[in-house]
Amino acid sequence: MADGLHERDEVRPSIDVVVKIADVLNTTVGYLLGEKNDADAFQDPVMLKRLNNINELPQKERDALLLTIDAFLRDFKTKKAYA
């Protein structure tokens, strides 16, 4: 804004605007707000390359891969919770 309202933290975007920005940037609201876990994935060049490669897969293969990843993550979280 020309009057500097953003710089003085007097105007903040609505959550709807932040969600739209995250969608356009193909990221999460958490990443935009500085959540460390999401930020780490984007700072690790190997992880970033993997994420970009996954994003280039055809939708059917991407969905299958994401289901597999989700299963591993679910199992990890379950084991961690009962450890």
TrEMBL record:
PROSITE patterns with a match to the protein in the record: HTH_CROC1
UniProt GO MF annotations: DNA binding
Annotated InterPro entries: Cro/C1-type_HTH (IPR001387), Lambda_DNA-bd_dom_sf (IPR010982)
Residue ranges of every copy of the HTH cro/C1-type domain listed in the record: 7-32
Gene3D superfamilies the UniProt entry points to: lambda repressor-like DNA-binding domains (1.10.260.40)
Superkingdom as given in the UniProt entry: Bacteria
SUPFAM superfamilies in alphabetical order: lambda repressor-like DNA-binding domains
Entry protein name: HTH cro/C1-type domain-containing protein
UniProt source species: Aureicoccus marinus
UniProt lineage: Bacteria, Pseudomonadati, Bacteroidota, Flavobacteriia, Flavobacteriales
